[in-house]
Amino acid sequence: AACSAAGTGLVFALGGGGVDGNLDSVEILDIGTAKGAMNEWRWHTMKGRLSSPRHAFGAVACVTKSSSKESCRTTSVSLFAVGGWKYGSISCESVEKLNFDFPSAESSLRSNDD
Fold it and tell me: The pTM is what?
């Protein structure tokens, strides 16, 4: 599933189907910071993961907090994974929440769930 929190320029891709089965990974693309001579975007895998591999689920991203401390402005984003399927045949009836903080002026991110 994919989602984006309004106004952040961040795109999140969660779970889904992989070569060897379902994924529990969370990846992020910061479309505000193009890299390289050709302005290429790069996906980054987050440390925080879904509690179980799942596919065919819904995802929502929300800005939950913004703060400023001297020269560093930080934004917190919460990701919600809703429903889906585990292991291809087991219904996943849970709602899962992951939290991430990132400096608003830079693209380096860290998970609150470590």
Answer: 0.77
